[in-house]
Amino acid sequence: MSQLYKTIEPSVIDDEMLEEAVKKQGPSGKAGQIAQLEGIEFKDVKNLQLDYRNILKIDNLWQFKTLTKLQLDNNVIEKIEGLNALINLVWLDLSFNNIEIIEGLDELVKLEDLSLYSNRIANIENMDSLVNLQIFSIGKNHINKLENIIYLRRFKRLRTLNLAGNPMCEDERYSMYIPAYLPTLMYLDFRLIDKTTKEIALEKHHSAVANLMYHEDVAFKKLEKIRLQEEELALHKAAYVEYLNGPGLFNTMFSEDPEAPKLLMLPGATELVDIFKAEFTSICQKLFTHGLKGHEKRQNELEHFMECVREAIEENQQKGVKVIKEFEEKNKEQLSEIQHMNDSQLLEIRIREFRVEVDQLWSKLMNLEMQLVDQLEETMSNFERNISEIVTSYVENLFVDKDTVINTVNASHDMHLLKIDNQEDKMVTRANGWAADTIETLHTDEINRNRKRVLEINIYVSHWRDELDFLELQDTN
């Protein structure tokens, strides 16, 4: 195979190659003929086979939004790239290529089966996002350190692993090391790891594994603490009250005030500043609590609105399905009769009658869509009114204690007053901005939904009209 590659120019993944592969894997028989006539949308393809094509670079796959299985084995690929758009990928085969580094897999969070067999990889790395990985084949590569497999401990669902053919497999510790450090593994190098082997391996490496588990636990707790802090900060930012649940704003004012050190040098000033700090922090805490309540109220209103929209769309869709089902059941025998009719005059009459049925179908479906548009428009108007009232109320009550704050700091520096005003402006601006952005997004989503639905209706009805045109054409011939 390597000799063959030396005599052939590397290929690129272009539209021609993709169309050929899709057609080759498409349905056969009459369904295949229809698919070739109508064309197969790349975005609808689930499986794609691009093996043995001398491909050097992974490219032009962004159109395959729903792809779940991708076969790229037996090519000359040197780098894992161009896969970011394939977020639904479950199965990926990159075996028998020239890959040296594991990379470019960050977006493939649904991936369950990954094969990198027979490449030039020296380290197992850069796979943190593959939380659903169950089967991993990386045999016949250049991995020479047993310790490298400790990286795989993070994949809690990993059950099948192939490492055969790597230099590290020659290490006399290999057969016991892998089961000890990957105790949940069921299959190693195509063989079942029996219970006895696992017990012996764990006993042999008990001390080292226990020490590793301790450090993993410490690291996990640190990461979990950071994660919780980040989630909490994200909530505070969404409520526009970050750093207000403590003395943060006060400390910022004093740290940026050049007169503060002079003030603290005065007799008794430290005690007064401490009292001022306590009062100021208490007021900030009230603002913080008010902000969180306002955020919760806005979110509840948005969730209620989205639930109403979902219910309206679902109900409308059910009505549409009922209309189509009734149409197909009513006209099933009539269509069959038309297709087998020999009397040209009678055929023309029946086709004309059927066209009326199709036109009525289009009218019913479009009426349903217009009813939904009107219903959603009314719901949207109610939401806009409610959310505007909520934001207005939030803003009006935001700084009810602002006079208290200003009186408290009035004797201090003007910079403090500017800090208070800036904080108020920031919270008001962000609240109003959130409302405007949310409403604009909802309007845009509804316009896109409506356009998509109208297109679906027209495509479906067009199919029936084309069918009638075809029957009329056959009759004239």
Describe this structure in words.
- By secondary structure, the chain is mainly alpha-helical.
- It folds into two domains: 203 residues, Ribonuclease Inhibitor (Leucine-rich repeat, LRR (right-handed beta-alpha superhelix)); 229 residues, no CATH class.
- 61% of the residues lie in helices and 6% in strands.
- The chain is built from twelve helices and ten strands.
- The strands form two sheets. An eight-stranded mixed β-sheet has the order 2-4-5-6-7-8-9-10.
- Helix 4 links the parallel strand 8 and strand 9.
- The N terminus is likely disordered.
Tell me briefly what this model is.
61% of the residues lie in helices and 6% in strands.
Number of helices: 12
SS-based class? mainly alpha
Taking the sheet with the most strands, its summary is: 8 strands, mixed
Low-confidence stretches: 1-7, 27-38
Helix content: 55-70%
Number of E strands = 10
Strand arrangement, major sheet: 2-4-5-6-7-8-9-10
Describe the structure using short key phrases:
477 residues, mainly alpha, Leucine-rich repeat, LRR (right-handed beta-alpha superhelix), 2 domains, 8-stranded mixed sheet, two-stranded parallel ribbon, 10 strands, 6% strand, disordered N terminus
SSE order and pairing:
Elements: H1 2-7, E1 11-12, H2 15-25, H3 29-38, E2 47-49, E3 55-57, E4 69-71, E5 91-93, E6 113-115, E7 135-137, E8 160-162, H4 174-181, E9 187-188, E10 191-192, H5 195-204, H6 206-238, H7 248-255, H8 260-265, H9 269-339, H10 344-398, H11 402-409, H12 414-476
Parallel strand pairs: 1-3, 2-4, 4-5, 5-6, 6-7, 7-8, 8-9
Antiparallel strand pairs: 9-10
Helix pairs in contact: 4-5, 9-10, 9-11, 10-12
